[in-house]
Amino acid sequence: MHLYVKRPLKSEPGMARQTSDRPRASRAAHPGPDEIQRDAMKQKAIETVSACTCTKLRKLTRRVTQLYDRFLEPAGLTVTQLGILGHVMASGGDIARGELADMLEMDPTTLTRNLKPLVARGHVTMVRDPSDQRRQGISLTAQGKTTLREAMPNWRKAQAYVTSVVGAGDVARLHEILGRSLVQLADRRADSRAISSKTDEARDDR
Questions:
Q1: Which domain covers residue 104, as residue numbers?
Q2: Is 92 helix (H, G, I), strand (E, B) or coil?
């Protein structure tokens, strides 16, 4: 007497894949509410980032800063530090920290952080005004003047490189637009403070 054991049928490899692929294909053809909302939010984020003036300017600033820093590296300065030394020099070699911060469009805390390495290397000195302890004067030292003078050829090379890549005409137009925009936006500082004040009041009322 022979016993026959019924073996389970082997499924074709393609059948398993075909079966598992059906729900995925169905989801792609008929996305659910969560997927639709996620796609809409993603598209909105892309549109916002692409149209954001601040984001574009910050990207450009970072890219240009990296270029200038590479050119200035042999002189031991960053383009930010060069700008600080240049502004102090243009002010006669001595200027109040608050005035320098305004000229650079930089908040005092950030300016102090950038001044520290310049003070440590003896390029500038920071001294409190004896007649007004609130006023902190920044002076360019002889070493700072020498470093600034020696860094200028590297800065000119950076300028020439950017001009050659972007084009002299576009660089001139960029300078014109940026200069005009700085003036226009500076006139709106009072509006910005008023907006910030209203925002804080609204937050306090919640």
A1: 83-152
A2: coil
